[in-house]
Design a protein that fits this description.
By secondary structure, this protein is of the alpha/beta class. It has ten helices and twelve strands. The strands form four sheets. Strands 3-4-7-8-12 form a five-stranded parallel beta sheet. Helix 2 runs antiparallel to helix 3 (about 60-75) and helix 5 (about 115-130) runs parallel beside helix 6 (about 155-170).
Length: about 325
Amino acid sequence: MNEVISGNVARNTQDVPYQAASLGIWDSKYHLKDLEGTPVDGDIEGMFTRVAADLASDEPEESREQHEADFRWALENGAIPAGRILSNAGAQAFKPATTLINCTVSRTVRDSMRNILEANVAAGMTLKSGAGIGYDFSTLRPKGASVSGAGAETSGPLTFMDIFDATCATVSSAGGRRGAQMGTFDIGHPDVEQFIAAKRAKGRLTKFNLSLLIRDEFVEAVKANTDWKLAFPLLPCESEEDHEIIYRDWPVIEDGYTLDEEGRVACRVYRTVRARDLWDKVMQSTFDHAEPGFILVDRINEMNNNWFCETIRATNP
């Protein structure tokens, strides 16, 4: 008899039957089936057996049986693992290329055509495995910036995001799950206003959640109602004498970037806006479309226990 204590009341979990909607979601997303669509689990209890056995398989042989029983008890009494665990644990014979990890963050997308396309390939393989993935796209130079190797101007980060969006829409994610992506973008990037407004275009970036990386410096500028400079690292083909330059911490150091004594990158100022005007655009878009969200990126890195070996610039979807 399984009982759950709620306040001072004990109730039998069997008194609460599975709802039709719950069973429908389970059948479409977590019910293991073979390639012909024939059920393998049989029922939800069969899924519990499959998952518990797989989770216990890495335990020492002498305690494996007890671990499996403990996992099975937890599942029967309300423990809900990540969706990829319910869907893919113990399912290697039917879908060996899947993962038990729900959400991931991509490599840094570096500012070169080859690296962007390689990151897109990695994203496609990650999505195929069933995991979601996040990326920081503000490492890419703004629209209109020079592409010295091609004698042309770049179309900017948003158009490359369209490529990742199309990949996500095209790749069939494992286990009946829709592909999920997070795109983050620095509040100081010259194309930030286009990023804020991206989802106002119907059908654009529909496979993305969007969030801004909010710097403490920007928050202070909003409070003080002062100007905010939109800037990107000075490119090797550009001259410091021809542009207004500020120095900022930057997540990647590409060949040819200019650094100061503190390791900050020389950034070319493309435009200057009022911080509160930019803030109002963020709030209006969030009100209208529920996006972009915002991430207090400086605070996250201050509190990150792995500060000595990583800088966080993106989250999972």
